[in-house]
UniProtKB/TrEMBL annotation:
InterPro entries: Znf_C3HC4_RING-type (IPR018957), Znf_RING (IPR001841), Znf_RING/FYVE/PHD (IPR013083), Znf_RING_CS (IPR017907). PANTHER family: RECEPTOR-ASSOCIATED FACTOR, PUTATIVE-RELATED, TNF RECEPTOR ASSOCIATED FACTOR. This is E3 ubiquitin-protein ligase PDZRN3-like. Residues 18-58 form the RING-type domain. Residues 196-217 are annotated as: Disordered. It holds the Pfam family zf-C3HC4. Residues 196-212 have a biased composition (Basic and acidic residues). One of its GO terms (molecular function) is zinc ion binding. Keywords: Metal-binding, Zinc, Zinc-finger.
């Protein structure tokens, strides 16, 4: 019989199952026709004289024609399994190749009390035998030589058992430590990825902030120094229908008013064109409040009349310009 599927920690590939017992291959062998079985299962099948055939395809074969499959045996021996005594409480997980050594040390394997004959977990045996003191005293009083010999051997056995129990627990802790280290390394790797992602996001945010500060600074410089009405007019026209969030419309409005007042106070004809273009652009934008647009509208009327005086031609200007919100 092969190894029970329930003992393996992960799903076992169907190609590793015996075609006779349907369990995981134990001591895998291959037939001349290429099918794999447990060595014991195939021997049992072939030793029945009427079945000198492959169990899978019924091709004729003899017992000595089966060959060990070293690669399969190595692969299966490296699979992780649960302890055979898991139902008794052992939580040890190990490689299949280590099973025999573990079973010799497992504290959950069944053991029999040499005094009363009860069967229990091996790691409980030492304490249990101490509870048999009444029986022990009676035996000693009777001078039972066989009992005294067994007791002497039992003391040595308890020491060996304690060592095996300790070895079992150490092995369990080693597996748990290995798993914990693996989880810790995975967690550290995940943290490193998150730190890199966080750093990348911070860099992107800083770049965006820097760009915004640069843009805002350039805009503030433009709106503060007011090097020319033409420059301000071009800036407004660039964002005619969508005012940048960092632009203060009241600041821009006051700047336009300053240009207009400066022109009215005595600007020349060339300056008139720049101011006229600035006021017209401001009126065409949607940056300003209704009250501000009324002022801009009046400035535009005044500039239109000035244009008429300068050029000697009347500029067609509606008496009332429409207001937009």
């Amino acid at each position: 019989m092969g190894y029970s599927l329930q003992r393996f920690l992960s799903r076992v590939d169907d190609n590793l199952l015996c075609g006779i017992c349907a369990a995981v291959l134990k001591d895998a062998v291959v037939t001349p026709c290429g099918h794999s079985f447990c060595e014991h299962c195939l021997d049992t099948w072939l030793n029945q004289t009427e079945r000198r055939t492959c169990p899978e395809c019924r091709s004729g074969m003899l017992p000595h024609e089966a060959r060990p499959v070293i690669a399969l045996r190595s692969l299966i021996s490296g699979l992780s399994i649960e302890c055979l005594h898991r139902v008794r409480g052992c939580r040890m997980t190990l490689k299949l190749e280590d099973e025999q050594r573990h079973q010799a040390e497992c504290g959950y394997s069944p053991a029999q009390c040499s005094t009363c004959g009860d069967t229990m977990d091996r790691y409980r045996l030492a304490n249990h035998e101490l509870q048999c003191s009444k029986v022990t005293a009676e035996k000693e009083e009777k001078g039972d030589a066989d009992f005294l010999t067994r007791r002497k051997n039992s003391a040595s056995g308890r020491f060996d058992l304690a060592l095996s129990e300790l070895a079992c627990r150490v092995a369990t802790l080693e597996v748990q430590l290995k798993q914990t280290r693996h989880e810790l390394e995975m967690s550290r790797a995940r943290n490193r990825r998150l730190e890199r992602e966080l750093q990348r996001r911070k860099s992107e945010l800083e770049a965006q902030k820097s760009e915004m500060r640069g843009t805002s600074g350039r805009c503030d410089t433009q709106l503060t120094t007011f090097q020319s009405a033409s420059q301000l007019s071009q800036f407004i026209s660039r964002y005619l229908l969508i005012k940048p969030h960092y632009v203060n419309k009241d600041h821009v409005f006051r700047s336009i008013r300053d240009y207009f007042d400066h022109y009215i106070a005595g600007g020349d004809g060339m300056y008139h064109n720049d101011v006229h273009a600035l006021v017209a652009t401001a009126y065409a934008s949607n940056w300003f409040s209704p009250s501000q647009r009324l002022c801009i509208q009046q400035w535009l009327r005044t500039l239109s009349r000035r244009s008429q005086e300068i050029t000697g031609h009347r500029t067609n200007m509606p008496d009332i310009l429409p207001l937009t919100s």
